[in-house]
Design brief:
Layout (H helix, E strand, L loop, with lengths): L1 H42 L7 E3 L2 E2 L5 H11 L8 E5 L2 E5 L6 E3 L1 H6 L8 H6 L5 E3 L3 E3 L1 H14 L9 E4 L2 E4 L6 E3 L2 H11 L6 E3 L2 E3 L5 H15 L4 E4 L5 E4 L8 E6 L2 E6 L1 H12 L10 E5 L2 E5 L4 E4 L1 H4 L3 H6 L5 E3 L2 E4 L5 H6 L4 E9 L3 H14 L3 E2 L4 E3 H5 L10 E6 L2 E6 L3 H14 L3 E4 L26 E3 L6 E8 L2 E8 L3 E14 L3 E4 L12 E12 L4 E11 L4 E4 L1
């Protein structure tokens, strides 16, 4: 009986710890379960614990409370300028100007509902979860803002340049990397991150310049330094020197990137100009003798021989002088230019023969005033052998101050008025006198519309400052221009020594074009029946006095149709 009692006692005392700890565990489980249930129940309808929006803690809040708090706390933040950073570049955007605004409802809709996962709920006590802000934007304002930001964050790489300045060779601009950002990604990043503390961070793809230190240094250390090592000195006549100092070498030498290296360009015109600042006094223009007439008396202005620098020969090897080892001091090469019409020739000159002559008529009284005035200005002008005569250059301005009046002109095919109208008739007369005198036609411009009182294909117009009549005396004798006006006609003669005979052959008219009709108003409107346009040609045949043909030249002229004018 005693052993039985001892065995029961041992069994009971051995199970006591297991039962104790099992009870504790069960109690804890029940406690935790009850706590979880209570927490879940109490958190229904609130933001998950640890939820943050725009850096504002809204965990545990009702939706309405969270919205009110966010609008209050972020009221200043949503109007602050936003910095967008990409690589080494930044840009600024004004949210209001860009049409950015927070969509609070959609933002709160994006918050996750309360989780059933107990671990996740427990982590909410220790870890915050940032919920992205959902934004809206006005496309009319936002798109241009995004484009601007994208451009500012996407600078092109800067290629190195080489300049000579202040007597030194410098790398300018310095090479710099470029970068690019994706416009769509920029737009997305701004929309989702413009309220993040620290602004918006964007990825940039770096690009490198084509011309960097590798390309510039050989030029800087070589020809660049050589170019500014010493001035260029050009010895002229009369102990006068021209000089390009080292601090002006950049005006002459430039460096241009090409095919992965730098090419050297030389501005020869600028070099000549700099040298000429001093050497111009060693040059002298050739001046032919001139004859002026005062009635039957004449006065001879003596000739003057000229001299000028032959810049082509002078600049031989100038490249090597600037960037290599040729001497940087040398002598200028001069060309003597004797007068082609000397004082002796002028004294012996005769003007007894008619070299070329032409007469036109049929002008109005007002045009006659202008024709007589320009004829007076030109009368007695002498053109030496080899010289040119410019009608605009000889007369100068032709306005009211010079005695010219308003008269009829042809403007866009119809009658109009302007000061100096009618001068083109004198130009036509002078052109034909020079034509039959064997002068070289340097420049002449026919009328756009045919005027019947002029020979077709053999007439000229002038306009001050724009259209000129110029011919050259290619004979060995001077000619004197003699004019006369009267009886409704103007005559121009070239007097001198006749050496050629000239024949004009008209080629007829073809390619006729018909006029259109225009309507004009105003008291000065002059109705017109118009006239067809056409194409014509003129062939000038020049022969010596023995009848031998010296030259033959055909000129084609196209005349526009003159419109039919109706006055309203």
């Amino acid at each position: 009986m005693v052993r039985v009692i001892e065995q029961d006692t041992e069994l009971t005392s051995g199970n006591m710890p297991a039962r104790f700890f099992g009870g504790i565990l069960l109690g804890l489980f029940v406690l935790l379960g009850t706590g979880y249930g209570v927490d879940y129940f109490l958190s229904q309808g609130t933001m998950p614990r640890g939820t943050m929006i725009g850096g504002v803690q809204v965990g545990g809040m009702k939706r309405a409370e969270a919205k009110e708090l966010l609008q209050k706390e972020l009221a200043d933040e949503i109007i602050k300028p936003v910095t967008i950073t990409a690589g080494q570049r930044t840009s600024i955007i004004d949210p209001r100007a860009a049409g950015l605004r927070v969509n609070w409802d959609k933002t709160l809709d994006s918050v996750e509902s309360q989780s059933l996962n107990p671990i996740k709920r427990i982590l909410g006590f220790f870890k915050d979860t940032e919920v992205p802000i959902v934004s809206d934007a006005d496309p009319a304002n936002f798109r241009p803002a995004v484009d601007r930001v994208t451009k500012e964050l996407s600078p092109a790489p800067v290629d190195a340049g080489i300049v000579l300045t202040g007597g030194q060779v410098k790398v300018d601009p310095a090479p710099a990397d470029g970068q690019t950002v994706d416009a769509e990604q920029v737009e997305k990043s701004i929309l989702t991150g413009w309220l993040k503390p620290g602004g918006v961070k964007e990825h940039a793809t770096i690009s490198h310049p084509k011309y960097g230190e590798k390309q510039v240094q050989p030029i800087v250390e070589g020809p660049g330094k050589k170019a500014v090592s010493a001035p260029l000195v050009l010895h002229g006549r009369d102990n006068i020197n021209g000089e390009i100092p080292v601090d002006r070498m950049g005006e002459v030498v430039t460096f241009r990137p090409e095919n992965d290296e730098f090419k050297i360009d030389f501005n020869y015109d600028r070099a000549r100009e700099i040298f000429a600042e001093k050497l111009i006094t060693t040059e002298k223009p050739r001046v032919n003798a001139n004859i002026t007439f005062h009635g039957s008396d004449r006065t001879v202005t003596p000739h003057s021989d000229g001299v000028h620098i032959d810049w082509v020969k002078t600049f031989d090897h100038i490249n090597e002088r600037i960037i290599a080892d040729d001497p940087r001091t040398w002598d200028a090469t001069y060309i003597d230019e004797p007068a082609s019409f000397t004082t002796e020739m002028a004294n012996a000159a005769t003007f007894d023969q008619v070299v070329g002559e032409f007469t036109t008529g049929g002008y109005s009284q007002a045009s006659g005033v202008n024709i007589a005035r320009v004829a007076e200005m030109v009368d007695g002008a002498m053109v030496a052998p080899g010289d040119t005569f410019s009608l605009n250059g000889y007369t100068g301005p032709r306005g009211t101050a010079q005695g010219f009046v308003e008269s009829g002109i042809i403007m866009n095919g119809h009658a109009d008025k302007a000061v100096g109208g009618g001068i083109s008739q004198f130009a036509t007369t002078l052109y034909n006198a020079a034509y039959f005198g064997g002068m070289e036609d340097v420049t002449h411009t026919p009328h756009s519309y045919y005027i019947s009182r002029y020979p077709a294909g053999r007439e000229a117009t002038v306009f001050e400052g724009a259209i000129d009549l110029v011919f050259k005396n290619t004979s060995q004798y001077p000619v004197r221009i003699v004019t006369s006006v009267g009886g409704g006609q103007v005559t121009v003669k070239l007097m001198g020594v006749k050496v050629v005979n000239v024949e004009s052959v008209n080629g007829g008219r073809w390619a006729t074009t018909q006029p259109n009709t225009i309507s004009l108003s105003g008291k000065d409107c002059s109705p017109s029946s118009g006239a067809p346009g056409f194409t014509t040609s003129d062939t000038r045949i020049v022969k010596d006095l023995n009848g031998n043909e010296l030259s033959r030249k055909t000129t084609t002229t196209v005349y526009n149709p003159s419109p039919i004018v109706k006055c309203t």
